[in-house]
Amino acid sequence: MTDRLTGLGTRARLKDKIARLIVEREADPAPFAVAIVDLDGFKPINDLYGRTAGDGILKQAALRLRAALDGASTVTRIGADEFAILAPMVFSASAARQLATMLIEVLSAPYDIGARSVRLTASVGTSIYDDMAETTEGLIGKAETALYEARRVGRNRVVVYSPELVEAVHSVTRIEQALRRAVSNGEVEPHFQPIVALDGGHLLGFEALARWNDHDLGPVSPGLFIPLAEERGIMPDLSRLLLGKAADAARNWPRHLFLAFNLSPEQLVDHSTAREVLEISARSGLDPRRLEVEITETGLMSQPETAATIIGEFKRAGVRIALDDFGTGQSSLGRLRDFPFDKLKIDRSFIASILNDRPSEHIVKAILAMCAGLGIGAVAEGIEERAQAKRLAELGCRMGQGFLYGRAESAIATTDLIQSRESRRLAELKRS
Ligand code: C2E
Ligand code: CA
Ligand code: CA
After folding, report:
1. Is residue 31 within 8 Å of residue 95, measured between CB atoms?
2. How many CA atoms lie within 13 A of 216 on its CB side?
3. In this predicted structure, what is the pLDDT of residue 329?
4. Is 223 a pocket residue for ligand 1 (Cβ < 6 Å)?
5. What is the DSSP code string of 250-306?
6. CATH assignment of 11-161, given 3.40.50.410, 3.40.50.300, 3.40.50.720, 3.30.70.270?
7. Pocket mutation for ligand 1, best pick of 193, 206, 209 (most atoms within 8 Å of C-beta)
8. Cβ distance 180 to 225 under 8 Å?
9. 88 vs 25, 195, 360, CA distance in Å?
10. Can you tell me the distance from the alpha carbon of 260 to that of 271, in angstroms, rounded to the nearest whole number?
């Protein structure tokens, strides 16, 4: 009943403790909580730094959990990187949420492994015993369902079990199956959103954005199916499909227009990524110097060394690197020094508020000054109004993207758009 590595109880101990507590509470009715904690991103760290480092992290996590809990609670290790907590003194969903939030905080502090330190986040699912008919297995299963949902909505979260969750989980499984089918039938399409020069509005390139219109489900948002594809291991196939189609389209555009393609975080921990991307664009006959990959800071964090190698391979082939969604999440100025970015995309949350919120304007100004100093291009994302574009241009921002200039459109519509813009531009050139 004891785990050798951490000295914590095992799953058998957890079950035993819950069963006893259920019996006690029959005589003295009061709720209690079960929480399952999962370390996000543990596996890649284990693979990268080795078993000993991984074991060290698990031991530190076990100590932290024990130290953070009251004497009445039990901590157990029920899977490689999963811990379960039985909290007899937690009587409500809101108290369970509070406890879980505290545990995530405790687990998020850096872990020392040898000379370096790494950071992890955690996801927690909890269930509450508030029904005398509830069983040990039932409580653990509900906490697992909640944990599953916490991972699905983006990790580093707490989810407390509720009956509605079951419905959500089932529908996710349906979407997953439909997505696998769509990917193998080649039914997910890249659409293309223009990126323009703020001065004059002429086209510079396009960002490929995935679109999926399923036969049965109708249009599904990339905000839902991209994370799902990442979670279920569908992303490599999906990304290959999208890049192939996007490169086929971009090959026929005028040569001065670039294609920006999003890489997901897990692709930056896979050493074959650069080679694959370059092979696909070569097969389409797209010059790599017209290709730009967009990556996020999340993608750089889990394995900075691997990401740096991949980025190096891209740069040598002439592919440009853009840092996406800058200003949200885990922004670090150090990263701008450590990686050779060509462009930085300022997240649309700043652009949306730039006209009526002084802090946003100051932040954008500072980002632009920094980019100018570092010799990095800056693109403002999510421009919807003329006044925003004007203000950004005044602040020295040269490139922009947003509904004001166009939404993402199909490959065919994009070719039409390019033709009409180019002929207008040529006419203007002739006149001047
Ligand atoms: P992103 O890379 O930040 O892409 C920009 C998102 O902002 C797109 O949402 C785009 O439609 C939206 N957007 C552009 N202009 C405006 C605007 O003026 N106002 C507003 N409100 N929104 C604007 P979309 O297409 O829903 O994509 C969401 C996210 O999904 C993308 O965010 C990207 O992270 C991911 N994604 C989409 N396609 C791919 C792909 O092929 N591969 C990967 N790895 N991720 C993708
Ligand atoms: Ca992007
Ligand atoms: Ca973005």
Report:
1. no
2. 9
3. 62
4. yes
5. HTTS-TT-EEEEE--GGGGG-TTHHHHHHHHHHHHT--GGGEEEEE-HHHHHS-HHH
6. 3.30.70.270
7. 209
8. no
9. 10, 56, 46
10. 21
pLDDT at res. 299: 85
Report how far residue 58's alpha carbon sits from residue 54's, in angstroms, rounded to the nearest whole number: 6
Domain 175-431: CATH superfamily is EAL domain (3.20.20.450)
The whole-angstrom separation of Cα 31 and Cα 361 is 50
**pTM of the entire predicted model:** 0.73
Closest Cα to residue 33, out of 83, 3, 80, 74? 74
Query: How is residue 21 written in tokens?
Result: 């507590």
Instruction: Please report which confidence band the pLDDT of residue 46 belongs to, taking 50, 70 and 90 as the band edges.
Output: confident
Question: How do residues 287-325 score in pLDDT, each as one tens digit?
Answer: 999 999 999 988 888 789 999 999 999 999 999 999 999
User: Does ligand 1 lie within 6 Å of residue 296's CB atom?
Assistant: no
* Non-local CB neighbours of 349 within 8 Å, separated by 6+ positions: 327, 328, 382
Alpha-carbon distance 314 to 187, whole Å?
28
Q: Cβ distance 28 to 20 under 8 Å?
A: no
Burial class from Cβ neighbours inside 10 Å (0-12, 13-18, 19+) for residue 334 reads exposed
Helices (H), 28-76: 42-49, 51-68
Among 212, 225, 230, 262, say which to mutate for ligand 1: greatest number of ligand atoms within 8 Å of CB: 262
Q: Which atom of ligand 1 sits closest to the CA of residue 243?
A: 41
Q: Is-contact 61 107, C-beta < 8 A?
A: yes
Helix (H) or strand (E) holding 194: strand 188-197
Which residue, 249, 322, 244, is CA-closest to 281? Answer: 244
Tokens for 351, please give them. Answer: 């652009």
Residue 263 CB-half CA count within 13 A = 30
